[in-house]
Amino acid sequence: MTEADRTKDAAVDQELIERWRAGDERAATAIVERHSTALARFALSLGVRDDLNELVQDTFVRAFSALDSFRADSSLRTWLFTIERRLVLDRRRAARRRPDSVEVMPEDAATEFHALDSMVASETEDRVRAALTRLSPMQRDVFTLRVQEGRAYKDIADILGTTEGAARVHYHNALRAVKEWIHD
Amino acid sequence: MTDCTNNDLQDLLPEFAAGELPARERELVDVHLVSCAACREEVDVIVAVRNARPLPPLVDVTAIVAALPKPPVLSTATRDDTTAPVLRVVTGGQTGRAPTMQRARATRSVFGSSMLKFAATLTLVAVGGLSVVMSGRGPTSATSSDVASTPMFSGDSMIVATLPEPYAPDRVPVKAVVSVAPSVLPIQELSDYSDDELALLLERLDAWDGAPPVEPDNVPPATIQSDSAIQGAS
Fold first, then answer.
1. Which of B85, B150, B89, B100 is nearest to B123 (CA)?
2. Which chain B residue lies closest to A66 (C-alpha atoms)?
3. Nearest-CA neighbor of A9 among A32, A28, A34, A40?
4. Which domains, ranges and CATH numbers included, belong to chain B?
5. How many other CB atoms sit within 10 Å of the CB of residue B45?
6. Residue ranges of the domains in chain A?
7. Domain A1-104: which CATH class?
8. What is the pLDDT of residues A113-131, one digit of tens each?
9. Nearest CA in chain B to A182
10. In this structure, what DSSP letter does residue A42 have?
11. Helix (H, G, I), strand (E, B), or coil: what is residue B179?
12. How many CB pairs under 8 A join A and B?
Protein backbone atom coordinates (compact mmCIF):
# COMPACT_ATOMS: atom_id res chain seq x y z
CA MET A 1 0.00 0.00 0.00
CA THR A 2 1.48 3.32 -1.04
CA GLU A 3 1.49 6.51 0.96
CA ALA A 4 -1.23 7.92 -1.32
CA ASP A 5 -3.39 4.86 -0.71
CA ARG A 6 -2.88 5.17 3.02
CA THR A 7 -3.88 8.82 2.94
CA LYS A 8 -6.97 8.02 0.92
CA ASP A 9 -7.88 5.16 3.24
CA ALA A 10 -7.42 7.38 6.27
CA ALA A 11 -9.70 10.01 4.75
CA VAL A 12 -12.42 7.45 4.07
CA ASP A 13 -12.14 6.07 7.61
CA GLN A 14 -12.23 9.54 9.10
CA GLU A 15 -15.36 10.41 7.16
CA LEU A 16 -17.04 7.20 8.30
CA ILE A 17 -16.10 7.94 11.89
CA GLU A 18 -17.56 11.43 11.64
CA ARG A 19 -20.76 10.04 10.14
CA TRP A 20 -21.05 7.52 12.96
CA ARG A 21 -20.46 10.21 15.55
CA ALA A 22 -23.25 12.20 13.91
CA GLY A 23 -25.61 9.27 14.39
CA ASP A 24 -25.30 7.35 11.13
CA GLU A 25 -25.24 3.70 12.20
CA ARG A 26 -24.62 2.51 8.64
CA ALA A 27 -21.19 4.04 8.91
CA ALA A 28 -20.39 1.48 11.60
CA THR A 29 -21.29 -1.31 9.21
CA ALA A 30 -19.01 0.17 6.59
CA ILE A 31 -16.13 0.41 9.06
CA VAL A 32 -16.60 -3.19 10.15
CA GLU A 33 -16.76 -4.37 6.55
CA ARG A 34 -13.58 -2.49 5.70
CA HIS A 35 -11.46 -3.88 8.51
CA SER A 36 -12.93 -7.13 9.86
CA THR A 37 -11.20 -9.44 7.38
CA ALA A 38 -7.80 -7.88 8.03
CA LEU A 39 -8.41 -8.16 11.76
CA ALA A 40 -9.34 -11.83 11.43
CA ARG A 41 -6.24 -12.49 9.36
CA PHE A 42 -4.03 -10.62 11.81
CA ALA A 43 -5.54 -12.63 14.66
CA LEU A 44 -4.64 -15.81 12.80
CA SER A 45 -1.09 -14.61 12.39
CA LEU A 46 -1.01 -13.97 16.14
CA GLY A 47 -1.88 -17.61 16.66
CA VAL A 48 -5.54 -17.16 17.57
CA ARG A 49 -7.71 -20.04 16.45
CA ASP A 50 -10.54 -20.24 18.98
CA ASP A 51 -13.29 -17.67 19.21
CA LEU A 52 -11.80 -15.66 16.39
CA ASN A 53 -15.14 -14.03 15.56
CA GLU A 54 -15.56 -13.08 19.19
CA LEU A 55 -12.11 -11.56 19.27
CA VAL A 56 -12.81 -9.45 16.20
CA GLN A 57 -16.13 -8.38 17.69
CA ASP A 58 -14.53 -7.45 21.01
CA THR A 59 -11.95 -5.43 19.14
CA PHE A 60 -14.62 -3.39 17.38
CA VAL A 61 -16.68 -2.95 20.54
CA ARG A 62 -13.67 -1.68 22.42
CA ALA A 63 -12.67 0.57 19.54
CA PHE A 64 -16.13 2.12 19.12
CA SER A 65 -16.41 2.63 22.88
CA ALA A 66 -13.19 4.61 22.81
CA LEU A 67 -13.58 6.26 19.43
CA ASP A 68 -13.34 9.68 21.05
CA SER A 69 -9.77 8.89 22.02
CA PHE A 70 -8.82 8.04 18.43
CA ARG A 71 -6.72 10.98 17.30
CA ALA A 72 -5.88 9.71 13.80
CA ASP A 73 -2.17 9.91 14.55
CA SER A 74 -2.09 6.47 13.00
CA SER A 75 -4.54 4.86 10.62
CA LEU A 76 -7.75 3.37 11.96
CA ARG A 77 -6.58 -0.10 10.93
CA THR A 78 -3.32 0.33 12.81
CA TRP A 79 -5.30 1.40 15.86
CA LEU A 80 -7.62 -1.61 15.51
CA PHE A 81 -4.64 -3.95 15.18
CA THR A 82 -3.17 -2.45 18.34
CA ILE A 83 -6.40 -3.03 20.25
CA GLU A 84 -6.73 -6.57 18.94
CA ARG A 85 -3.18 -7.45 19.87
CA ARG A 86 -3.71 -6.13 23.39
CA LEU A 87 -6.85 -8.24 23.69
CA VAL A 88 -4.93 -11.31 22.59
CA LEU A 89 -2.20 -10.63 25.13
CA ASP A 90 -4.81 -10.05 27.85
CA ARG A 91 -6.49 -13.35 27.00
CA ARG A 92 -3.21 -15.18 27.16
CA ARG A 93 -2.40 -13.64 30.52
CA ALA A 94 -5.86 -14.58 31.82
CA ALA A 95 -5.46 -18.13 30.51
CA ARG A 96 -2.08 -18.38 32.20
CA ARG A 97 -3.68 -17.41 35.53
CA ARG A 98 -6.27 -20.17 35.24
CA PRO A 99 -4.66 -23.22 36.80
CA ASP A 100 -6.89 -25.74 35.05
CA SER A 101 -6.31 -24.34 31.59
CA VAL A 102 -3.67 -25.35 29.13
CA GLU A 103 -1.91 -22.38 27.65
CA VAL A 104 -1.85 -22.35 23.88
CA MET A 105 1.23 -20.64 22.62
CA PRO A 106 1.34 -19.07 19.19
CA GLU A 107 3.65 -21.81 18.03
CA ASP A 108 1.16 -24.47 19.05
CA ALA A 109 -1.66 -22.70 17.29
CA ALA A 110 0.38 -22.28 14.15
CA THR A 111 1.23 -25.97 14.26
CA GLU A 112 -2.44 -26.77 14.60
CA PHE A 113 -3.15 -24.63 11.56
CA HIS A 114 -0.34 -26.35 9.76
CA ALA A 115 -1.82 -29.73 10.56
CA LEU A 116 -5.29 -28.75 9.38
CA ASP A 117 -4.26 -27.16 6.18
CA SER A 118 -1.28 -29.15 5.12
CA MET A 119 -3.45 -31.60 3.22
CA VAL A 120 -4.43 -28.96 0.75
CA ALA A 121 -1.39 -26.74 0.83
CA SER A 122 1.50 -27.02 -1.51
CA GLU A 123 4.85 -28.16 -0.26
CA THR A 124 6.27 -24.65 -0.50
CA GLU A 125 3.41 -23.25 1.55
CA ASP A 126 4.03 -25.90 4.16
CA ARG A 127 7.65 -24.97 4.33
CA VAL A 128 6.80 -21.29 4.62
CA ARG A 129 4.36 -21.91 7.45
CA ALA A 130 6.82 -24.14 9.21
CA ALA A 131 9.44 -21.45 8.81
CA LEU A 132 7.12 -18.81 10.29
CA THR A 133 6.52 -20.94 13.36
CA ARG A 134 10.25 -20.95 14.05
CA LEU A 135 10.50 -17.19 14.19
CA SER A 136 10.37 -15.39 17.51
CA PRO A 137 6.91 -13.93 18.24
CA MET A 138 8.14 -10.40 17.57
CA GLN A 139 9.82 -11.40 14.30
CA ARG A 140 6.72 -13.22 13.16
CA ASP A 141 4.42 -10.33 14.05
CA VAL A 142 6.61 -7.82 12.25
CA PHE A 143 7.07 -10.06 9.24
CA THR A 144 3.41 -10.94 8.78
CA LEU A 145 2.31 -7.35 9.28
CA ARG A 146 4.80 -6.19 6.67
CA VAL A 147 4.43 -8.95 4.09
CA GLN A 148 0.90 -10.19 4.53
CA GLU A 149 -0.84 -7.02 5.66
CA GLY A 150 1.34 -4.50 3.84
CA ARG A 151 1.74 -2.25 6.88
CA ALA A 152 4.45 0.40 6.93
CA TYR A 153 7.23 0.15 9.49
CA LYS A 154 5.83 3.09 11.42
CA ASP A 155 2.44 1.36 11.70
CA ILE A 156 4.11 -1.87 12.73
CA ALA A 157 6.06 -0.06 15.41
CA ASP A 158 2.83 1.50 16.73
CA ILE A 159 0.99 -1.81 16.77
CA LEU A 160 3.73 -3.77 18.45
CA GLY A 161 4.91 -1.04 20.78
CA THR A 162 8.41 -0.88 19.38
CA THR A 163 10.44 1.52 17.27
CA GLU A 164 10.51 1.82 13.52
CA GLY A 165 14.21 0.94 13.46
CA ALA A 166 13.68 -2.16 15.58
CA ALA A 167 10.80 -3.22 13.31
CA ARG A 168 13.11 -2.97 10.28
CA VAL A 169 15.74 -5.10 12.00
CA HIS A 170 13.17 -7.73 13.00
CA TYR A 171 11.82 -7.79 9.46
CA HIS A 172 15.20 -8.33 7.82
CA ASN A 173 16.22 -10.97 10.36
CA ALA A 174 12.92 -12.76 9.80
CA LEU A 175 13.27 -12.54 6.04
CA ARG A 176 16.75 -13.99 6.16
CA ALA A 177 15.65 -16.83 8.46
CA VAL A 178 12.57 -17.69 6.40
CA LYS A 179 14.61 -17.72 3.22
CA GLU A 180 17.15 -20.12 4.72
CA TRP A 181 14.50 -22.44 6.14
CA ILE A 182 12.56 -22.52 2.90
CA HIS A 183 15.64 -23.48 0.95
CA ASP A 184 16.91 -26.03 3.48
CA MET B 1 19.56 -10.58 -0.35
CA THR B 2 21.08 -8.25 2.19
CA ASP B 3 23.71 -7.15 -0.28
CA CYS B 4 21.35 -4.61 -1.80
CA THR B 5 22.15 -1.12 -0.59
CA ASN B 6 19.16 0.55 -2.18
CA ASN B 7 17.01 0.68 0.96
CA ASP B 8 14.33 2.86 -0.63
CA LEU B 9 13.63 0.34 -3.35
CA GLN B 10 13.94 -2.57 -0.94
CA ASP B 11 11.23 -1.00 1.19
CA LEU B 12 8.87 -1.17 -1.78
CA LEU B 13 9.24 -4.91 -2.36
CA PRO B 14 6.30 -6.06 -0.21
CA GLU B 15 4.00 -3.65 -2.06
CA PHE B 16 5.56 -4.70 -5.36
CA ALA B 17 4.91 -8.37 -4.58
CA ALA B 18 1.35 -7.51 -3.60
CA GLY B 19 0.82 -5.66 -6.90
CA GLU B 20 -0.05 -2.48 -5.04
CA LEU B 21 2.58 -0.15 -6.42
CA PRO B 22 1.68 2.70 -8.76
CA ALA B 23 2.95 2.27 -12.32
CA ARG B 24 5.90 4.63 -11.96
CA GLU B 25 7.33 2.99 -8.85
CA ARG B 26 6.61 -0.45 -10.22
CA GLU B 27 8.68 0.40 -13.25
CA LEU B 28 11.57 1.52 -11.02
CA VAL B 29 11.47 -1.77 -9.11
CA ASP B 30 11.27 -3.76 -12.34
CA VAL B 31 14.43 -2.08 -13.62
CA HIS B 32 16.18 -2.62 -10.28
CA LEU B 33 15.31 -6.31 -10.15
CA VAL B 34 17.03 -6.94 -13.46
CA SER B 35 20.38 -6.13 -11.87
CA CYS B 36 19.80 -7.09 -8.20
CA ALA B 37 19.71 -10.80 -7.41
CA ALA B 38 19.24 -10.16 -3.69
CA CYS B 39 16.02 -8.26 -4.26
CA ARG B 40 14.76 -10.84 -6.74
CA GLU B 41 15.28 -13.48 -4.10
CA GLU B 42 13.51 -11.34 -1.54
CA VAL B 43 10.51 -10.90 -3.83
CA ASP B 44 10.34 -14.68 -4.28
CA VAL B 45 10.25 -15.19 -0.52
CA ILE B 46 7.63 -12.49 -0.04
CA VAL B 47 5.43 -13.98 -2.76
CA ALA B 48 5.76 -17.42 -1.18
CA VAL B 49 4.84 -16.06 2.25
CA ARG B 50 1.87 -14.18 0.83
CA ASN B 51 0.65 -17.32 -0.92
CA ALA B 52 0.91 -19.23 2.34
CA ARG B 53 -1.23 -16.64 4.04
CA PRO B 54 -4.10 -18.40 5.77
CA LEU B 55 -7.56 -17.61 4.53
CA PRO B 56 -9.42 -15.92 7.34
CA PRO B 57 -12.79 -17.34 8.33
CA LEU B 58 -15.88 -15.45 7.34
CA VAL B 59 -16.59 -12.73 9.86
CA ASP B 60 -20.17 -12.13 10.91
CA VAL B 61 -20.42 -8.41 10.20
CA THR B 62 -24.08 -8.20 11.25
CA ALA B 63 -23.38 -9.70 14.67
CA ILE B 64 -20.44 -7.38 15.20
CA VAL B 65 -22.42 -4.29 14.27
CA ALA B 66 -25.29 -5.36 16.53
CA ALA B 67 -22.88 -5.56 19.46
CA LEU B 68 -21.45 -2.09 18.90
CA PRO B 69 -22.37 0.81 21.16
CA LYS B 70 -24.79 3.35 19.75
CA PRO B 71 -23.40 6.53 18.24
CA PRO B 72 -23.05 9.28 20.86
CA VAL B 73 -25.81 11.37 19.27
CA LEU B 74 -28.34 8.55 19.34
CA SER B 75 -27.44 7.38 22.80
CA THR B 76 -28.05 10.89 24.13
CA ALA B 77 -31.33 11.30 22.29
CA THR B 78 -32.73 7.97 23.43
CA ARG B 79 -31.85 8.39 27.09
CA ASP B 80 -34.88 8.15 29.32
CA ASP B 81 -34.99 11.64 30.74
CA THR B 82 -38.39 11.20 32.32
CA THR B 83 -36.95 9.21 35.20
CA ALA B 84 -33.95 11.42 35.78
CA PRO B 85 -34.12 13.77 38.71
CA VAL B 86 -33.87 17.39 37.82
CA LEU B 87 -31.84 19.97 39.64
CA ARG B 88 -32.70 23.53 38.78
CA VAL B 89 -31.05 26.74 39.72
CA VAL B 90 -33.76 29.30 39.84
CA THR B 91 -32.72 32.91 39.63
CA GLY B 92 -34.94 35.86 40.20
CA GLY B 93 -35.69 37.88 37.10
CA GLN B 94 -38.16 38.76 34.42
CA THR B 95 -40.02 35.97 32.76
CA GLY B 96 -38.58 35.13 29.40
CA ARG B 97 -35.44 37.10 29.89
CA ALA B 98 -32.37 35.21 30.85
CA PRO B 99 -29.97 36.71 33.34
CA THR B 100 -26.99 38.13 31.60
CA MET B 101 -23.47 38.89 32.57
CA GLN B 102 -23.09 41.66 30.04
CA ARG B 103 -22.20 45.00 31.54
CA ALA B 104 -21.23 48.40 30.36
CA ARG B 105 -17.51 48.78 29.75
CA ALA B 106 -17.27 51.72 32.13
CA THR B 107 -18.57 49.72 35.10
CA ARG B 108 -16.51 46.59 34.49
CA SER B 109 -13.71 47.43 36.84
CA VAL B 110 -16.11 48.47 39.58
CA PHE B 111 -18.23 45.33 39.48
CA GLY B 112 -15.65 42.84 38.27
CA SER B 113 -15.01 41.28 41.65
CA SER B 114 -18.67 41.14 42.57
CA MET B 115 -19.52 39.35 39.37
CA LEU B 116 -16.81 36.79 40.00
CA LYS B 117 -18.07 36.31 43.50
CA PHE B 118 -21.58 35.90 42.18
CA ALA B 119 -20.48 33.29 39.65
CA ALA B 120 -18.40 31.48 42.24
CA THR B 121 -21.27 31.48 44.68
CA LEU B 122 -23.68 30.20 42.07
CA THR B 123 -21.29 27.36 41.41
CA LEU B 124 -20.92 26.64 45.11
CA VAL B 125 -24.65 26.64 45.57
CA ALA B 126 -25.10 24.33 42.61
CA VAL B 127 -22.40 21.93 43.79
CA GLY B 128 -23.65 22.07 47.34
CA GLY B 129 -27.19 21.46 46.27
CA LEU B 130 -26.00 18.62 44.09
CA SER B 131 -24.18 17.01 46.98
CA VAL B 132 -27.28 17.30 49.14
CA VAL B 133 -29.32 15.56 46.50
CA MET B 134 -26.66 12.95 45.77
CA SER B 135 -26.18 12.11 49.42
CA GLY B 136 -29.83 11.20 49.60
CA ARG B 137 -30.57 12.88 52.84
CA GLY B 138 -34.12 13.37 51.85
CA PRO B 139 -36.05 15.31 49.32
CA THR B 140 -35.77 19.04 49.19
CA SER B 141 -38.34 21.15 50.87
CA ALA B 142 -39.09 23.14 47.76
CA THR B 143 -41.58 21.87 45.24
CA SER B 144 -42.32 23.22 41.83
CA SER B 145 -45.33 25.04 43.22
CA ASP B 146 -43.10 26.60 45.87
CA VAL B 147 -40.88 27.89 43.14
CA ALA B 148 -43.75 29.40 41.26
CA SER B 149 -45.18 31.10 44.31
CA THR B 150 -42.01 32.18 46.04
CA PRO B 151 -41.14 35.78 45.25
CA MET B 152 -37.64 36.05 43.92
CA PHE B 153 -35.48 39.11 44.22
CA SER B 154 -32.88 40.16 41.77
CA GLY B 155 -29.79 38.08 42.32
CA ASP B 156 -31.60 35.50 44.44
CA SER B 157 -30.92 31.90 43.58
CA MET B 158 -32.19 28.63 44.87
CA ILE B 159 -31.67 25.01 44.09
CA VAL B 160 -34.76 23.00 43.30
CA ALA B 161 -34.42 19.26 43.05
CA THR B 162 -37.14 17.09 41.62
CA LEU B 163 -36.56 13.42 42.30
CA PRO B 164 -38.41 10.55 40.68
CA GLU B 165 -40.31 8.09 42.81
CA PRO B 166 -38.89 5.85 44.00
CA TYR B 167 -35.41 7.24 43.84
CA ALA B 168 -32.22 5.59 44.99
CA PRO B 169 -30.44 8.15 47.16
CA ASP B 170 -27.04 6.58 46.64
CA ARG B 171 -27.19 6.70 42.88
CA VAL B 172 -29.06 9.65 41.58
CA PRO B 173 -27.85 11.12 38.32
CA VAL B 174 -28.83 14.75 38.29
CA LYS B 175 -29.61 16.96 35.38
CA ALA B 176 -28.98 20.62 36.11
CA VAL B 177 -31.11 23.25 34.45
CA VAL B 178 -30.69 26.96 34.91
CA SER B 179 -33.97 28.73 34.40
CA VAL B 180 -35.58 32.03 35.13
CA ALA B 181 -38.50 31.88 37.49
CA PRO B 182 -41.55 34.06 37.19
CA SER B 183 -40.48 36.94 39.33
CA VAL B 184 -41.95 39.72 41.32
CA LEU B 185 -39.04 42.01 40.75
CA PRO B 186 -37.62 42.54 37.27
CA ILE B 187 -34.20 41.10 36.68
CA GLN B 188 -31.49 43.54 35.82
CA GLU B 189 -28.14 43.31 34.24
CA LEU B 190 -25.38 43.54 36.78
CA SER B 191 -24.56 46.97 35.53
CA ASP B 192 -28.12 48.01 36.30
CA TYR B 193 -27.98 47.14 39.99
CA SER B 194 -28.13 50.04 42.31
CA ASP B 195 -25.40 50.50 44.86
CA ASP B 196 -27.73 49.33 47.63
CA GLU B 197 -28.67 46.22 45.75
CA LEU B 198 -25.08 45.41 45.03
CA ALA B 199 -24.18 46.01 48.64
CA LEU B 200 -26.94 43.61 49.67
CA LEU B 201 -25.76 41.07 47.16
CA LEU B 202 -22.18 41.34 48.36
CA GLU B 203 -23.36 41.02 51.93
CA ARG B 204 -25.06 37.76 51.07
CA LEU B 205 -22.05 36.56 49.14
CA ASP B 206 -19.83 37.29 52.11
CA ALA B 207 -22.21 35.37 54.32
CA TRP B 208 -21.94 32.38 51.97
CA ASP B 209 -18.16 32.46 51.70
CA GLY B 210 -16.11 29.69 53.27
CA ALA B 211 -17.22 26.43 54.77
CA PRO B 212 -20.63 26.12 56.33
CA PRO B 213 -20.63 26.58 60.11
CA VAL B 214 -22.02 23.10 60.67
CA GLU B 215 -21.54 19.79 58.97
CA PRO B 216 -23.92 19.29 56.03
CA ASP B 217 -25.25 16.18 57.75
CA ASN B 218 -27.01 18.36 60.26
CA VAL B 219 -28.77 20.58 57.79
CA PRO B 220 -30.43 18.41 55.18
CA PRO B 221 -32.82 20.81 53.50
CA ALA B 222 -31.38 24.04 54.85
CA THR B 223 -29.45 24.86 51.72
CA ILE B 224 -32.62 25.08 49.78
CA GLN B 225 -34.59 26.89 52.38
CA SER B 226 -31.99 29.48 53.12
CA ASP B 227 -32.98 31.51 50.10
CA SER B 228 -36.53 31.75 51.23
CA ALA B 229 -35.31 32.83 54.61
CA ILE B 230 -33.14 35.46 53.05
CA GLN B 231 -35.98 36.67 50.93
CA GLY B 232 -38.19 36.91 53.95
CA ALA B 233 -35.56 38.85 55.83
CA SER B 234 -35.07 41.30 53.04
1. B89
2. B69
3. A34
4. 1-72 (1.10.10), 82-233 (no CATH)
5. 23
6. 1-104, 105-184
7. mainly alpha
8. 444 454 445 677 778 888 8
9. B45
10. H
11. strand
12. 121
